[in-house]
Design a protein that fits this description.
- Belongs to the ABC transporter superfamily.
- Keywords: ATP-binding, Nucleotide-binding, Transport.
- This is Zinc/manganese transport system ATP-binding protein.
- One of its GO terms (molecular function) is ATP binding.
- With about 290 residues, the chain is of the alpha/beta class.
- It has a domain at about 20-90 and about 220-275: P-loop containing nucleotide triphosphate hydrolases (Rossmann fold, 3-Layer(aba) Sandwich).
- It is built from eight helices and eleven strands.
- The relative contact order is 0.14.
- Mean pLDDT is about 85; it is low at about 1-5 and about 270-288.
- It binds adenosine-5'-triphosphate.
- Adenosine-5'-triphosphate binds near residues 30, 35, 53, 57 and 59.
Length: about 290
Amino acid sequence: MSSGSVVDPDTAQEQTPLPAIAISDARLSFGARVLWEHFDLDVSPGEFVAILGPNGSGKSSLLKALLGEHRVSAGSITIDGIPPRRGSDRVGYIPQQQMHGLDTPLRGRDLVGLGVDGHRWGWGLRDRGLRSAAVRDALAQVDAEHYADQPVGLLSGGEQQRLRVAQALAGDPGVLLCDEPLLSLDPAAQSRIASLIDRRRREHGTAVLFVTHEINPILQFVDRVVYLVDGRFRIGTPDEVMTSETLSELYGTGVDVVRVHGRILVVGADAVVGDVASTHHHHDRVVR
Ligand SMILES: Nc1ncnc2c1ncn2[C@@H]1O[C@H](COP(=O)(O)OP(=O)(O)OP(=O)(O)O)[C@@H](O)[C@H]1O
């Protein structure tokens, strides 16, 4: 990564782009419990970073620190050079899945509209046509136009999740934070959503932080992996991090990383992560 390198103003033709996200020597703690510290991560515009690790390792909390919901107790975080704050129009967020109940009085189109309005109501929306177009565009990006007028409570989990992706993208954010956005999607829908997010970062330079238990559905898109385990972490390319040696070190126990047909399987004595773990972790999956 070029971020952080020193640019000589006399010779440099191109400026090193400012990182979209800059985390420097950061510590996140709850009371006496330190989730991580001395954490450094610069994410370039358009970079796709996967956040992996077992339950409770602090993946969601990392996103919440970037959303301005948790404050780091040491070090600093900036997004486009500015400390995180709630409701920032620079950040799109796909939260961990919550189903909408049958009594939710919103249609899919309304949900996505909230994503458009979220960043604009402060100065008023002058052009209703623009708003409708932004909603239509976001719905089309996730192929959800045909169910956009149904109450969201009647939609399947996968259909609802596609709307959430559309809602997060509707505000045209420079940083997209995703908390397990592929959960309860079938493989075809997973691949469609992952490709959509990949296209988004390529075409718009959106930096993507993607929390997941399964790296395989996004492996082809991932530039770097942040792997968190119990306060320890490793950051690098998938080839650097997803090795038996590195994960055994992180877990403090023998972990085998096996590549089969372009997929990564991680199998450990006490910790089983990746594809296998997700079948244990999520109640809606069948353990075979
Ligand atoms: N506001 C809070 N106050 C105190 N502890 C918290 C708070 N938020 C999270 N924690 C704790 O921090 C730890 C990390 O939580 P987090 O949700 O970030 O983990 P995660 O890696 O995303 O886990 P999962 O894979 O289960 O979603 C957990 O033990 C959790 O109980």
